[in-house]
Amino acid sequence: MVNEKYSEQLSYLEKPNEKEIPEDLQALFDENIEFQQKNWGFINNLFKVLPLNPYQYKGFLDLKNSLFSPETCYLSNSDKEMIGLVVSSTNSCSYCLTTHSDALRGLTNDPVWVDQLTYNYRSARLSDKQRALCDYAYFVTAYPNEITTNEVDKLRTVGFNDHEILEAAFVAGFFNFTNRWVSTISPIPNKGHYQHNR
Questions:
Q1: 26 contacts 52 by C-beta, under 8 angstroms
Q2: According to the 3-state scheme, what is the secondary structure of 53-106?
Q3: What pLDDT is attached to residue 3?
Q4: Which terminal residue of the chain has fewer beta carbons within 10 Å of its beta carbon, N or C?
Q5: What are phi and psi of 143, to 5 degrees?
Q6: What is the spatial distance between Cα 38 and Cα 165, in angstroms, rounded to a whole number?
Q7: What's the Cα-to-Cα distance from 67 to each of 43, 77, 87, 167, rounded to whole Å?
Q8: CA dist., res. 188 & res. 128, Å (int)
Q9: pLDDT at 2
């Protein structure tokens, strides 16, 4: 019998088997899918790949939600998506660039600026604080063995407080973490991401 929910081959990995996913976790995963379908009209394909390891997928969702909840966070989601694009561009993670440029277009309503940021953040129009965040995200991604107190000092100089700096570090680390395993499994982006929020 074909498992309709996970019937597509969307990555290098085998397709998830719904029979192997605990019911409470599948219900949570279904909520994410339903939200995307209702609000976007399509589904982020990664959410149809990761249920292969349901408990680790749940852990990923929990971490992601902790970093992008406006009620409990310090930086704006636009700033965090901007950090994510700089990290993903530096790591050449095409899937994350596709999905997170879509997200940032939705937050900023400025697709041209997001495209510039995605190609090379240095070519984009940035405030001093945005440029400092982008410079930080690039440096800690490209030169992790050279991180010193300078990275914190530069962010403080343009006005970030320590709560914001720690969150920027969490977000840059989160995207580096995600880029590496996403690139390994090579999910296929939903075609909807390319035109969405333009």
A1: no
A2: CHHHHHHHHHHHHHHCCCCCCCCCHHHHHHHHHHHHHHCCCHHHHHHHHHHHHH
A3: 62
A4: N
A5: -135, 55
A6: 34
A7: 21, 9, 16, 8
A8: 35
A9: 47
Q: Is 187 helix (H, G, I), strand (E, B) or coil?
A: coil
Q: What pLDDT does 1 receive?
A: 41
Query: What residue type is 188 in one-letter code?
Result: I
Low-confidence ranges of the chain (pLDDT < 70): 1-3
DSSP 95-156: HHHHHHHHHHHHHHS-HHHHHHHHH-GGGS---HHHHHHHHHHHHHHH-GGG--HHHHHHHH
CB 133 within 8 A of CB 155: yes
Angle between helices 111-119 and 77-90 (to 10 degrees): 40
Angle between helices 94-108 and 77-90 (to 10 degrees): 150
